[in-house]
């Protein structure tokens, strides 16, 4: 559950970090799977996460300019 005190910038940063974490998880899983159809699905999920991260970064830049990252990846993962 997200803490109630997050700023809009922090929410974007948590979202961006979450997409990165999901991408890495699908990447790790894809290296352990030997079934071609599952590898293909995991590759698609990785692409989706990469696209989501790119979209969130663009929206963040549009709203907050070059504001520094407001929350660490470790903190985002804990949320």
Task: Describe the structure using short key phrases.
79 residues; mainly alpha; 3 helices; 76% helix; elongated
Walk me through the structure.
The chain is mainly alpha-helical. Helix 1 packs antiparallel against helix 2. The longest helix is centred in the middle third of the chain and has 29 residues. The protein is elongated and about 45 Å long. 13% of the residues are buried.
Q: Count the DSSP helices.
A: 3
Rounded mean pLDDT is: 94
Helix % is over 70%
Main beta sheet, described?
A: none
Number of strands: 0
Hey, roughly how much beta strand do the residues contain? under 5%
- Rg estimate, integer Å: 15 Å
Q: Which stretches of 5+ consecutive residues score pLDDT under 50?
A: none
Structural class: mainly alpha
Give the helix/strand layout.
Layout: H1 8-32, H2 36-64, H3 73-78
Helix pairs in contact: 1-2
């Amino acid at each position: 559950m997200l803490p109630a005190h997050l700023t809009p910038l922090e929410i974007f940063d948590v979202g961006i970090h979450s997409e990165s974490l999901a991408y890495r998880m699908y990447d790790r899983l894809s290296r352990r799977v030997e079934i071609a159809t599952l590898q293909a699905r995991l590759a698609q999920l990785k692409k989706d996460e990469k696209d989501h991260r790119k979209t969130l970064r663009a929206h963040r830049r549009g709203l907050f300019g070059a504001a520094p990252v407001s929350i660490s990846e470790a903190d985002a993962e804990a949320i």
